[in-house]
Amino acid sequence: MYLCLHKNTTIMRAVIQRVKKASVVANGVKTAQINQGLLVLLGVEDADTAADIDWLCGKIARMRIFNDENGVMNLSVQDIKGDIIVVSQFTLHASTVKGNRPSYIRASKGEFAQPMYNAFLEKMSAEMEKEIGAGIFGADMQVELINDGPVTIIIDSHLRE
User: Fold this and answer.
1) What b/e sequence results for 33-54 when a residue is b if at least 16 CB atoms lie within 10 Å of its CB, and e otherwise?
2) Is 91 assigned a catalytic role?
3) Domains of the chain, start order
4) Among 96, 128, 95, 134, which residue's Cα sits nearest to residue 114?
5) Mean pLDDT of the chain
6) In what helix (H) or strand (E) does residue 145 lie, and over which residues does it extend?
7) pLDDT band with cut points at 50, 70 and 90 for residue 108
8) Is residue 120 a contact partner of residue 114, using CB atoms and an 8 Å limit?
9) Which of 66, 90, 120, 137 is the catalytic position?
């Protein structure tokens, strides 16, 4: 079944990558580095709410995408005591409907997106019961990772599939 979203539908979007290791450098300074865990790229839209943050953080923390002793994806990042880095990325809301230059009109501006990003980091830290690594909001960043699997999952908070 193909699901078509109305152009005014808003979503908090996350791209989750299972990693063997990852790091973020912002403005020439390494801001986060982890070994086994998750790298989460996060995009925010204006209609996103605290409920979106709560749902998405819970889903990410408990998503069973790490292998158990039988090689079956049956463990969460919490189960393996892994780490998480969250990087803000407005380009996740790129619209490529017209022309060849993506439009970012759906992505929230900094005055809304930055507090939502910070709230996401706080909630994710609470879910994991430890500090979460992060980039610097709005900075030019270089993200380095070794994707494990590879396993990459996209979650939209309003689809909840």
Assistant:
1) ebebbbbbbbbbbeebeeebbb
2) yes
3) 13-156 (3.50.80.10)
4) 134
5) 89
6) strand 141-156
7) confident
8) no
9) 90
Decide: residue 3, CB within 10 A, 0-12 exposed, 13-18 middle, 19+ buried.
Answer: exposed
Predicted confidence (pLDDT) per residue in 14-71, tens digit? 999 999 999 999 999 999 999 999 999 999 988 889 999 999 999 999 999 999 999 9
Judge whether residue 4 has pLDDT over 60. Answer: no
CB 24 within 8 A of CB 133: yes
Options 9, 49, 91, 142, the catalytic residue:
91
How many contiguous H segments (helices) and E segments (strands) does the chain have?
2, 8
- Exactly one of 66, 78, 89, 120 is catalytic; which is it? 89
Beta-carbon contacts of residue 32 (< 8 Å; ≥ 6 apart)? 22, 23, 24, 85, 133, 134, 135
Question: Does 90 participate in catalysis according to the annotation?
Answer: yes
> CB of 13 within 8 A of CB of 157?
yes
**What letter would DSSP give residue 150?**
E
SS (HEC) of 42-104: EECCCCCCHHHHHHHHHHHHHCCCEECCCCCEEECCCCCCCEEEEEECHHHHCECCCCCCCEC
